[in-house]
Write a structure and sequence with these properties.
Helix content: 40-55%
Number of helices: 16
Structural class: alpha/beta
Strand order of the largest sheet: 3-2-1-4-5-6-7
């Protein structure tokens, strides 16, 4: 590469300590900057926490889903333009507007600054505004972690309410826009071979047009417990970015209830139970309120401590396009019990965790019991996980491969690099 690249990295929401988007944006921007590239992050709320030297341009939305008042009613003085009106109107008609409205704001901001950037990299907003950038000749690419239509299908399968099914279809209507936009960008990357197959199936892109660049971990930050520090016996940890069927938390709660007939096992959930959501209903049904702790989002240092103390980390998901929590657990030498869903077998491999069929509570219970009962097995799984991360999954490798992908995309477009 003849010179450093000027990169606009877009993320429609970038929650710092929960969910993959904020983690991806922070780590990738930091590593690209350390490789000598100039990166500017553009994000809506919640804004990311970025490392020093990476500027953040805030593109504020109406922030209609913020805690503690999601689905709020904005004051009239908050409306600034027609994009805000469209955001409010879409929410009022049960749709999810943020991918579309963020992309429109990003295009409005970037078009007058087109000469400032060599490439625009979108982190799965895949909104209509990106096509304005493409038409203007600004090289525009995207990461698709997995097709969101898979989330929709799993949620539809988990409900029998006709009204709820109609609402879900409306909420996920933006997935049609995403499939249309993805096929018209200058490049698309994803994080696993499994996601590449799913993008072809659900979004209609040719598999050969999608590059695979796995995400990574910082093994200096996510590290095994200090020598001599014991793990907390009978403790299970799970990381869930959302209380939705996709994450399989209800299945884990059912397994926990079975385990508690024999031992005082406890579950820590890094995440939040949605009011009236499936986890809350399961806690009531299974009488588990005294055995489960929800932490909400936690800073990275606390997350590392949780991984270092847990006897076993569970990933009961019905689908994962990748799974950063799996890498984080492996880097901390925590033994894993995962399902066979999505990219989990590809990420975890055959030696770092026990694998069960997605949705099978009996298999999940037995695997958790096996790890809890066998410290030698737990240690073996943890050591294998740490080795796998060091060999295959670091953010520096992700950033270098991403920069090479930018260069290849620019060369295909005939841009000087």
């Amino acid at each position: 590469m003849g010179r450093s690249l000027r990169i606009a990295l877009l993320s429609y929401r970038s929650k710092p300590h929960s969910g993959g988007q904020g983690i991806y944006v922070r780590a990738l921007s930091r590593e690209l900057a350390e490789l000598g590239h100039r990166v500017e992050v553009l994000s809506g709320q919640p804004y990311p926490e970025l490392d020093g030297g990476v500027p953040l341009t805030r593109l504020p939305s109406l922030d209609l889903y913020r805690e503690p008042d999601p689905f709020r009613t904005p004051r009239p003085s908050e409306f600034r333009d027609w994009v805000d009106v469209a955001e409010w109107a879409t929410m009022c008609t049960a749709g999810f507007p943020e991918p579309m409205t963020f992309s429109l704001r990003a295009a409005r901001h970037l078009l007058p600054r087109a000469a400032d950037f060599d490439v625009v990299h979108d982190n799965q907003s895949l909104g209509w505004g990106l096509l304005r950038l493409v038409r203007a000749g600004l090289p525009t690419v995207a990461t698709v972690h997995h097709p969101i239509s898979i989330d929709r299908d799993l949620e539809l399968a988990a409900t029998r309410s006709f009204r709820r099914r109609l609402t879900l279809r409306r909420w996920y209507a933006f997935t049609r826009m995403q499939a249309h936009v993805a096929g018209r960008l200058d490049g698309v990357t994803t994080v696993s071979e499994n996601s590449r197959r799913d993008i072809a199936t659900h979004m209609g892109l040719a598999p050969e047009s999608v590059d695979v660049i796995p995400v990574g971990i910082d093994p200096a930050e996510f590290r095994p417990p200090p020598d001599g520090q014991p793990r907390d016996p009978d403790s299970i940890l799970v990381i869930t970015s959302a209380d939705v069927a996709l994450k399989g938390l209800v299945h884990l709660l059912e397994a926990l209830a079975k385990l508690r007939t024999e031992r005082p096992v406890r579950l820590t959930v890094v995440g939040t139970a949605r009011a009236g959501g499936p986890a809350e209903a399961a806690l009531d049904r299974l009488a588990l309120h005294d055995a489960v702790r929800f932490t909400g989002p936690v800073p990275e240092a606390e997350l590392v401590r949780l991984f270092q103390r847990a006897s076993v980390v569970a990933i009961p998901s019905l689908y994962e396009g990748f799974s950063l929590p799996a890498l984080e657990a492996m880097a901390c030498a925590a033994p894993l019990v995962t399902t066979d869903a999505g990219a989990l077998p590809e990420v975890v491999g055959s030696k770092a965790g026990l694998r069960v069929r997605a949705g099978d509570v009996g298999e999940l219970t037995a695997a958790l019991k096996l790890v809890l009962d066998s410290p030698a097995l737990a240690d073996q799984l943890g050591r294998a996980g740490r080795r796998r991360v060091l060999d295959h999954f670091t953010w520096r490798s992700t950033a270098q491969r991403t920069a090479d992908w930018y260069v290849g995309t620019l060369e295909r477009k005939g841009k000087q690099c």
